[in-house]
Amino acid sequence: MRIFLTILLLAGLSFNACSDTLIVQKQRFTLDRFTTASGSTIAPVNIGWEAYGKLNADKSNVILITHYFSGTSHAAGKYHAADTAAGYWDAIVGPGKAIDTNKFYVISSDTLVNANVFDANVITTGPATINPATGKPYGLSFPVVTIGDFVEVQKALLDSLGISTLHAVVGPSMGSFQAIEWAVRYPDKVQRLIPVIGSAYMDAYSAVKLERWSYPIKTDPAWLNGDYYQQGQPIQGLTTALAYITQDALNPVGFNLNYPAPELDTAPQHDIRASFSAWQQLMQQAKLRATYQDANHILYLVRASQLWRAGMGDNWQQAVAKITAPTLFLPATGDLLLPPALSKNSAAAMTAAGNTPQYAEIPGNWGHLDGVIGIEAVASQIAGFLN
Amino acid sequence: MRIFLTILLLAGLSFNACSDTLIVQKQRFTLDRFTTASGSTIAPVNIGWEAYGKLNADKSNVILITHYFSGTSHAAGKYHAADTAAGYWDAIVGPGKAIDTNKFYVISSDTLVNANVFDANVITTGPATINPATGKPYGLSFPVVTIGDFVEVQKALLDSLGISTLHAVVGPSMGSFQAIEWAVRYPDKVQRLIPVIGSAYMDAYSAVKLERWSYPIKTDPAWLNGDYYQQGQPIQGLTTALAYITQDALNPVGFNLNYPAPELDTAPQHDIRASFSAWQQLMQQAKLRATYQDANHILYLVRASQLWRAGMGDNWQQAVAKITAPTLFLPATGDLLLPPALSKNSAAAMTAAGNTPQYAEIPGNWGHLDGVIGIEAVASQIAGFLN
To answer: Does B259 map to a domain?
Structure first.
């Protein structure tokens, strides 16, 4: 959300609070014990969630929104009327909008190991959480968790609310992974699926690219193998990781609109150690975000993303064959992080299995981020697909 | 050249030595003193060069080839008949080939601060060179050098050979920067220009992306602000930088053909510190290359690339307006490092100034690297343009 905001502000775009802006509240869901797919137990697990709209009598009007890597459960609305910004997909979630809260009850939850663990509006469980058994943060004793684990925690939340079917699951980026996994695991529960800027699998190229986000943290001497909670965060490594995430989420066109061209700088012409203004600005913005994020949480989210493949086994193509939900893939044309080819390959595997996924591209200058800040461009496709 | 080789071998391609393979010899050019555009003096400067074909009587048949970031002057031919591989553009440089050495005298020189400084076949001057004034390697006391400086050293080499006009200047990637700068500075000498996988300028996005190659070196404690020659190279930083360069030069399609998919690995499922086979292989290959490369040289090449803009002033569009040479831009369709948009923007600026640059794309799976290993796909365009 904050990346989104930063970019919005940088781009000189304005965000008009409609008079009908939803006022939303964070809620807490607690699972006393959760066992991961790998067999580890985490006790307890807490996650935050929000809901927009009204649950109907037979609980048949639920849409689940699953968030992206740097995102939170704050998909729409504001916490207070005076908030400067609304949730990340407020352009399409609300009364009369594409995901119409006059019709649908929309639920959005924080993932395990959410990046923004020190944001007051986020509730998550991860390596920065105090392990009740030791009284100290888990650090690397927290188990590696997967997209499948994220989905199982969401499933437990929905079970606790007595919700057994979903009109749709919709999510951008890492949210698309969760949405697809929902449709693979629970084909009888998921009636529609919209993977936005997503993929049904992680390829070698992307897994290595994501490792490059982790590298600055893992090589920061202050990381201490993840056991830094007494000494303080590996701030340089974390800041650098967040800077890289920001750049990789942008298309060069959007990036160059936001950051100064190198010819404006003179120091780098004389000193190899000097850096460019574009680099400095990117790092400064990342440093602000680092204040409410946690380095280990970034590593765990990277790992969950790297391990992603539909069905969490060794054959994602067979897994997506289990999807029965009508599906709408919405990649962003300029996306260099999860480019349209990944959506196309995912859709092709479903087509080969007899499904008939739809496909449309989100236009824009922002690349991957068009799936967040540019989502309004495909509002009518989403509305049409849902209704 | 070795990246090229590694990739070739990994891809299972074979390289057939033709019976007419050129046998070439490295030659040395020495400038007693060279003053950089920034006003620093380097004394002496040595660079290596090679030539293919025969200089005609009026010295009017010269084509200059300028090499890419990781490349050397070894553009074609072999040093010995038994060499397993030929120069990087051997597919288009040789008797009867697109750049026909039966007609043209082709010259290729090592740049200043060449990456492969410890390769026995490379002669270059840079931070790893012994400064005669101190008896120790220059380290960061070596001045920041630019593409303009590279061109001036090449100009001195050609002057020493009595060559005053160039039938063409042709170069891939960083070689395109040098080729364009030749045509900007010496429009009366450059008769044809072929920027391959290139650009007339560096944008903020690319400058930051290149800084990400430098980061692992600059943050390696063994880098010692560039003063590591007694203790030994910052090998982890250098290896990582070379791994990133390899990935960034590849399109995901080509990368995924070369490196194993993440689902084949189990250790990363249980340990955040564990890495994927794809990462390990990339790093192992990079470690081999690191044995003959120098960390500071990489930083200086990154900086020269970051500072690149035609004319080396603050308006590259005005600079390219000085080019009178017929020009053929040859970007690679799948290039994510210097994508076709940069060639298109460069060509558009020339068109706006009244030039009529031609444009064609190199097809292939390898991305940026298609400008090196896939160059044969545009051999006929190159031959047609030169003749």
So the answer is: no
Whether the CB-CB separation of A248 and A70 falls below 8 Å is answered with no
User: Mean pLDDT, to the nearest integer, of B148-162?
Assistant: 98
Which residue in A109, A173, A214, A343 is the catalytic one?
A: A173
Q: What is the ipTM of this complex?
A: 0.93
Mean pLDDT for the stretch of residues A145-160? 98
- How many A/B residue pairs have CB atoms within 8 Å? 152
Q: Domain total for chain A?
A: 1
What's the mean pLDDT when you consider all of chain B? 95
Which of B90, B110, B335, B370 is an active site residue? B335
Domain carrying residue A27: 2-202+314-386
Tens digits of residue pLDDT in A274-310: 999 999 999 999 999 999 999 999 999 999 999 999 9
> How do residues A212-268 score in pLDDT, each as one tens digit?
999 999 999 999 999 999 999 999 999 999 999 999 999 999 999 999 999 889 999
| Optimal mutation site among B211, B214, B228, interface A, most CBs of chain A within 10 A | B211
Contact residues for A141 (Cβ-Cβ < 8 A; gap 6+): A127, A131
CA B330 to chain CA centroid, nearest Å: 15
CATH number for the domain spanning B103: value is 3.40.50.1820
DSSP A57: T
Mutation site for B-interface testing, chosen from A40, A138, A201, A263 by largest number of B Cβ within 10 Å: A263
Active site residue B335: yes
Cβ <8 Å between B279 and A216: no
A8 has pLDDT over 50: no
Q: Is position A101 within any domain?
A: yes
**B211 CA: distance to closest CA in chain A (Å):** 8
Instruction: Name the catalytic one among B109, B173, B305, B346.
Output: B173
Q: In Å, how far is B346's CA from the nearest CA of chain A?
A: 15
pLDDT in tens, A340-360: 999 999 999 999 999 999 999
Asked if residue A274 belongs to a domain, the reply is: no
Q: State the DSSP string of B352-371.
A: HTT---EE--B-SSSGGGHH
Residue ranges of B 136-155 with Cβ closer than 8 A to chain A:
140, 144, 146
Domain-located, residue A278: no
